Amino acid sequence: MKRFIETLKNIWKIEELREKILLTLGLLLVYRLGSNVVLPGIDPESLTNLQNQADGGIIGILNAFTGGAFANASILALGIMPYISASIVIQLLGMAVPTIQKMQKEGESGRRKINQITRFLTIAITAAQAPGYIANLMSQNVGVTISPSLFWFTSIIVLTAGTVFAMWLGERITDKGVGNGISLLIMVGIIASLPQAFLQEFASKIDRGGGLVLFIVEIAVLLFVILLSVALVQGVRRVPVQYAKRTTGGRTYSGNMARQYIPLKVNAAGVMPIIFAQAIMFIPVTVLSYAGLESGNANWLVSMFSDIQGFWYNFVFAIMIILFTYFYTAIQVNTNQMAEDLKRNGGFIPGIKPGKSTAEFLDTVLSRITLPGSIFLALLAILPAFAMVAGVNTQFAYFYGGTSLLIMVGVVLDTLQQIESYLLNRHYDGLMKSGKLKGRTVSAF
Predict the structure, then answer these.
(1) pLDDT (tens digit, 9 = 90+) per residue, 386-419?
(2) What whole-number distance in Å separates Cα of residue 329 and Cα of residue 188?
(3) How far apart are CA 295 and CA 289, in angstroms?
(4) What is the pLDDT of residues 308-347, one digit of tens each?
(5) Nearest 5 degrees, angle CA 6-CA 9-CA 14?
């Protein structure tokens, strides 16, 4: 405890870091306040049906990612999710469109161009999603105090502006604050529901005989799951690399002194496989429901994909996560490019020929470590279902795994790593007793 307090004092002593943290907290507060500002023309008392709709399913996931803004019919109801969608689209296009591939290799100038394209695509996606959100509002009998035509017009503009504002806040946090701004906005939205879920679970257990002991056990299990999540996010397989000569800090090293490592992450795909799998799992239910085909075999299919505690739902969900983990890892990690870069810089893996053989070796290692990583990711994704079966409150159970937990763990580790680097650069002790935080985490997306 004494060491922790001393670390906080050291953080406060660094003026630049102190200003960055305060700016970050201020912008996050603005985002949370905006999540509670209702769209113009809506009667806040009539949002009961919308809030009930957001208790589960994909609507519940969207509501969690927006920190309750979706169920509040807020000006930030669509949150930062259109930006995430646009970023994923650009990533996928980078595999097939030569122009974007060229931009990705142009360094800082190319990154600025891609960011600009992503912003415009975000506006387009938000403008397309806003009418759907408003139509859903109207279907939930939300009270509108102005003319419907004016409400539609103003709401589309306000929702689009709200997403652009959230995107701007995220970029300002990334540039001027601490951590990845977009990921922090998502994490804050998820954490916003944690106190209420915690208190509800505590109250429900206290009402039962011996409930306090059971609640303590639940918290212990949750902490253990968090530790496993940290291990998954931080886990890497270090592949040794040797250079004939290596210049670092004005000094030239050769032989064993020039040996380094390629850190291949056990879970290079992050949370994207879970997001893709969840989106696809809700497609059959949505299509059959809107088509009115909810009888016979179709009814069985709807029931199976709607029961998040059922065996078949979780089995299919886990299989899809494993498959998507391999798919997204193949997109994220280009072993051919890594082999070419090594060869160009005079590096090689001991015992492996440079070029094609190196690419094949890296691909084999990546495939082997991705298998346990994908299985572990799938188990974490279905843990909330096991928690619900064990009697944990639905809202609190979502924090036992899945997208929410992995995003929180990844963002917290990334932010702590940045703070750690500031402390070490100023010759203060790091956040951990043993020194630096292991590895370097990536943003949630």
Answers:
(1) 888 888 887 788 888 777 888 888 888 888 888 8
(2) 27
(3) 10
(4) 778 888 888 899 999 989 988 888 888 888 888 888 888 8
(5) 130
Beta-carbon contacts of residue 373 (< 8 Å; ≥ 6 apart): 232, 235, 265, 266, 267, 268, 325
Q: What is the dihedral of CA 266, 270, 272, 275, to 10 degrees?
A: 110
By residue count, the chain amounts to 445
DSSP conformational letter for 256? G
The token duo for 330 is 């193949």
pTM of the model: 0.79
User: Which alpha helices (H) appear in 252-355, and where do they start and end?
Assistant: 272-291, 297-306, 311-332, 335-344
Can you tell me the distance from the alpha carbon of 303 to that of 156, in angstroms, rounded to the nearest whole number?
Answer: 34
What is the chain's mean pLDDT, rounded?
81
What is the side-by-side order of every strand in the sheet holding 260-265? 260-265, 236-243, 347-348
User: Rg of the chain over CA atoms, in angstroms?
Assistant: 24
